[in-house]
Amino acid sequence: MNIEKIGVFCSSSADLDPLYYEQAELLGKWIGENEKTLIYGGSRCGLMEAVAQGVHKTGKGIVVGVIPKILIDREMVSECVGIKVPTEGLTDRKAWLIKLSDVMVAMPGSVGTLDEAFSVMSENAIGINTKKVIFWNINGFWDGLFSMFEGLKQTGVVNKPLEHFYMRADTLEEVIKCIESI
Hints:
Blueprint: E1 5-9, H1 18-33, E2 37-40, H2 46-58, E3 62-68, H3 69-73, E4 83-87, H4 90-100, E5 103-106, H5 111-126, E6 133-136, H6 143-155, E7 166-169, H7 172-181
Parallel strand pairs: 1-2, 1-5, 2-3, 3-4, 5-6, 6-7
Helix pairs in contact: 1-2
């Protein structure tokens, strides 16, 4: 499968380690240079803005922002967004993010990022889609999550190996390898 549309779930926080913003911009740069499409939340804040700027600065690629009405009303939409997909709220935003993306990359983020990533994994588990989430474990950010996944396996609550639904990448190079292996 040729992956063209890369969904990115990530933090909108402006108070993170600078490494996260640098890596987000590098991912965006890779997406742009490879003339792929970024599908993301459309915000002009945090890692969302950094990844969009990475694509935008290349002059290639497409930036699709799936944006809840509340962010539009608050004028929080990134100027990098080339195609806007307005939504009523977060539930339909998440549905559109998943629908429009071929694969998802979960960068450091909070409950929204987890909600989006878990929805993809849950839909895969019951056969709604076969899409995967690549958890980009920058600086060990997702280590606790991976420990939790291991605990789920050990307790027997998992019907299929969780690796059917997600991939782990510790570096941008590994993210790219994951994308190219799908």
